[in-house]
Amino acid sequence: MATIKDVARKAGVSTATVSAVMNDSAFVSPELRARVVTAIRELRYEPSLAARNLRRSRSQLIALAVADLSNPFYARIVWSAEAAVAAWGYSLVLFNSDEKPDTERRILSRIRTLGCDGMVLVPVGAANQYQPHEFEGIATVLLGRSIKGNSADTVTIDNWAAGRQAVDYLLDLGHRRIGSVTGPMQLSTSKGRLDGMIDAMAARGLAPQPGHIRSGEFREEAAYSVARDMMGSPDRPTAIYVANGVMAIGVMRAIADLGLRCPQDVSIASTDTVAGAGGLKPRLTRTEHPIADMTNEALRLLVDRIEERGSEPVRNIVFQPALIVGESCRPLRADAG
Amino acid sequence: MATIKDVARKAGVSTATVSAVMNDSAFVSPELRARVVTAIRELRYEPSLAARNLRRSRSQLIALAVADLSNPFYARIVWSAEAAVAAWGYSLVLFNSDEKPDTERRILSRIRTLGCDGMVLVPVGAANQYQPHEFEGIATVLLGRSIKGNSADTVTIDNWAAGRQAVDYLLDLGHRRIGSVTGPMQLSTSKGRLDGMIDAMAARGLAPQPGHIRSGEFREEAAYSVARDMMGSPDRPTAIYVANGVMAIGVMRAIADLGLRCPQDVSIASTDTVAGAGGLKPRLTRTEHPIADMTNEALRLLVDRIEERGSEPVRNIVFQPALIVGESCRPLRADAG
DNA sequence: CCTTGATAGCTAATCGTTTCGCTAAGTCTG
DNA sequence: CAGACTTAGCGAAACGATTAGCTATCAAGG
User: Fold this and answer.
1) pLDDT tens series, chain A, 337 aa
2) CATH value at residue B132
3) I need a surface site. Which of A268, A323, A328, B146 has the fewest CB within 10 A?
4) Would you say A11 and A32 are in contact if contact means Cβ atoms under 8 Å apart?
5) Residue A280 carries which DSSP code?
6) Residue A223 vs residues A210, A244, B296, B325: alpha-carbon distances, Å
7) Which of A208, A246, A201 minimizes the C-alpha distance to A230?
8) How far apart (Å, rounded) are the C-alpha atoms in residues A278 and A281?
9) Could you tell me the residue range of the domain that residue A36 belongs to?
10) Among A81, A85, A98, A91, which Cα is nearest to A114's?
């Protein structure tokens, strides 16, 4: 690889001049500029980011650490994030914490070592697992989930509203025995959605039966097994609110395996679906998040923090979910209530 | 951020010693080692990769450039790749060329500037669009698609076998008028799969009708429109081989919108499905690729190239597809053939 | 004609590591 | 005990860029 010195020698100028041409950082006479440009082209010179970054103490790298790359929801985030990061002139370094706090800890340290200019993090741990120094000195935006007491910018959705909307819809259809398959309770997303559900029911003087609320990992398999268990009992709910898209697939599979039909026997509403956007039958009734907008907003905030070294106040952006009606819910027949 | 000098000063040793402790690159007496370790911990020292890499001319970065991040097939690759890269001690820089050769060119240049130690590339251009120097000096593995005449290692699937297997299956069910919705002809994947189909039919003295072979972008929308067009005509095929999973979703949607049912009215077989793995109804009959194995193998080859500077002969690994029978195909009723 | 100011381009310091070569102290060996 | 080996640890030179500060050169003004 040619270095700046090779270019300087070939063009008969100093390295400072080459640098000035590369960065347009100072006036260079047209004649010299031409010689430099030619030399750059002929040697196929590409500046070494390692050297540049060492000097500038910038890396042009933005890290994205998501909670579960096997989940299409995060795959969608990755897609948007790559585009946004590239548009801002950075490159994306991708990490998957796989919902494991230990892995996440290693990732944070790695991000620091790499000298990433900033990071977008979907945190997987409970609030008390984070040391303040883990976020010091590196611009951070928390995406999707927040950490209580943390002073980073956040971009989240209104989980409470998502649960409330979905369950209000089920209630409007006449359902009264409503169950939920949801994620780990230490995550703000699971907790918020369940609270929305409970408040929706409470507003009509109802409460879910204890056995009808099941929480577990945000994965298809986990959802399958708890749904199978819950729906196998005689007082099973007539409708289920599932807290995420991947789990919804597991729940639908469980229902099919039990010989029940959706929506004829059980109505299902969920939050945050992306899975099988085109293919799932019946199409899920769900509350959707504007994933692309959220991701773009997260990167806008992040780049803002990186480039304006100023310390503006912490920003918390909350997006509202939208209810998309599919074919997975039915009004409850009067005799079954 | 603390630097190695701070640590050296605090521990009362030279920077060389600190470096030796960090990298275990030379014997350091237990006493000094202990002082250094303490200083590192107290200052929360993390070495700067920028500096280390400048010196070592390594970056610990592996680039992955995929053709289309919105395609679950590539999302699946990204998932596997992140895990493999991390397991080998590198970090993953992700790029999306979005099937655009121009974007890909910029990405290649960026990868070079970043000083990535190696790259895994899903190429999007025709063979003649690549300059040899674009791959010089950086370890490269081509994944999924190959470039004729290129001397990089490749990991691909046997596309011909995939097309042949799927279409043989349809032929065995009695179908004779078989159509195909496939991708751009300049890509080795599309071409190979179509060739497999044609050979399968030729082996039984058949040939597809010209209007029954439609190629276009590897996207759902493209597939939807060509399928709608093809299936709208009276001599429509009784079965369709779709060259990729995302397109299959588009084809199924088109069929449903035309009032046709799958598999009752039309049988569909495809290659490379991942989309809606859990959810799609009816479940597709398809040839599947061992995506995780392929990705792991690609990274094994790559790391091998990076770390053994030796120039072993070029390796081309070809994986075989496996036919997975779903519910999207039916024997042809005798009267309709 | 000398001073002043402007400015194109150069020299050299710097970023934070790794690593080559050296010193000095210790250990054998005959 | 002197000379020959070892070896723990140090000093300083890289790596390849950026950039502050300097040096010529030249034009304009008095």
Assistant:
1) 789 999 999 999 999 999 999 998 888 899 999 999 999 999 999 999 899 999 998 899 999 999 999 988 999 999 999 999 999 999 999 999 999 999 999 999 899 889 899 999 999 987 778 887 778 788 999 999 888 877 889 999 999 999 999 999 999 999 999 999 999 998 888 999 999 999 999 999 999 998 899 988 888 889 999 999 999 888 899 999 999 888 888 898 899 889 888 889 999 999 976 655 555 667 889 999 899 999 999 999 999 999 875 567 899 999 999 999 988 899 987 544 3
2) 3.40.50.2300
3) A323
4) yes
5) B
6) 17, 10, 29, 25
7) A208
8) 9
9) 4-47
10) A91
Please answer yes or no on whether B69 and A51 come within 8 Å at the CB atom.
no
Residues A72 and A141 reside in one and the same domain: yes
Tell whether B55 is covered by a domain.
Answer: no
Taking alpha carbons only, the member of B144, B101, B90 closest to residue B122 is: B144
At A8, which CATH number? 1.10.260.40
| Cβ(A247)–Cβ(A284) below 8 Å | no
Sign of CA dihedral A163, A164, A165, A166: positive
- B263: preceding bond cis by omega (within 30 degrees): yes
More confident residue, B94 or B24: B94
Which residues 6+ apart lie within 8 Å of A36 measured at CB? A7, A11, A13, A17, A18, A21, A28
Shortest Cα–Cα distance, B204 to chain A (Å): 33
* Same domain flag for A303 and A276: no
**B170 conformational bin, left if phi > 0, alpha if psi -120 to 50, beta if neither:** alpha
CA separation for the pair B263, A8 (Å, rounded): 68
Q: Report residues 199-258 of B contacting strand D, contact meaning Cβ closer than 7 Å.
A: none
Tell me if B67 sits within 8 A of B74, measured CB to CB: yes
Mean pLDDT within B305-330 = 86
Ranges assigned E (strand) in A131-284: 139-144, 153-157, 178-182, 213-215, 239-242, 267-271
> Is the domain of A330 the same as that of A204?
yes
Out of B51, B69, B276, the one facing A279 most closely (by C-beta) is B276
Asked whether residue A195 is assigned to any structural domain, the reply reads: yes
Mean pLDDT (chain B, rounded): 90
Range of lowest pLDDT (A122-126, B132-136, B223-227): B132-136
Which pLDDT tens digit goes with each residue over B202-213? 999 999 998 999
Rounded (10°) CA dihedral B216, B222, B228, B234: 0
Does the beta-carbon distance from A50 to B47 stay under 8 Å? no
Angle between helices A4-11 and A15-23 (to 10 degrees): 110
The answer for A 251-310 residues in CB contact with B (under 8 A) is 252-253, 275-276, 278-281
The string of DSSP letters for A193-207 reads HHHHHHHHHHTTT--
**B36 shares its domain with B111:** no
What does the pLDDT read at residue A234?
87
CB atoms within 10 A of CB A45: 19
Which of B57, B252, B278 faces A220 most closely, judged by CB atoms?
B278
B275: which chain A residues are within 8 Å (Cβ-Cβ)?
Answer: 276, 278-279
Given pLDDT bands bounded at 50, 70 and 90, which one contains residue B336? very low
Name B121's Cβ contacts closer than 8 Å, sequence gap at least 6: B65, B108, B140, B141, B142, B143, B152
Which parts of A69-151 are beta strand (E)?
91-96, 118-121, 139-144
Residues B277 and B150 occupy one common structural domain: no
SS3 A23: helix
CB < 8 Å from B in window 128-187 of A? 133, 137
Q: How wide is the angle at C-alpha A39 spanned by C-alphas A36 and A42, nearest 5°?
A: 150
